[in-house]
Design brief:
Length: 80
């Protein structure tokens, strides 16, 4: 995954692709392990109040990037 500029994620070369996918699509593209899907969906529900089908991959990645990266974002989410 390319770097997303957190000030303007739409400047990324992959922005249009990520914005055309849901977070669910992205997670399914990168893993076929059911537990990974469940963890991402739980994090999405706790952070955004919706499941992965209702949020664009670009928004989720930009949000995570602004929090210091996806690993840090989900570690912070799980510790809540």
């Amino acid at each position: 995954m390319n770097f997303l500029p957190f000030r303007d994620p739409y400047l990324s070369p992959t922005a249009q692709i990520l914005d055309s996918k849901t977070l669910e699509d992205l997670v399914k593209d990168i893993s076929d392990v059911p537990e990974v899907f469940e963890v991402f969906n739980a994090a999405c529900l706790s952070c955004f109040g919706c499941d992965m089908t209702q949020i664009s991959a670009l928004f989720a990645m930009a949000y995570a990037n602004a929090a210091g990266g996806i690993a840090r974002f989900y570690l912070l989410t799980i510790s809540l």
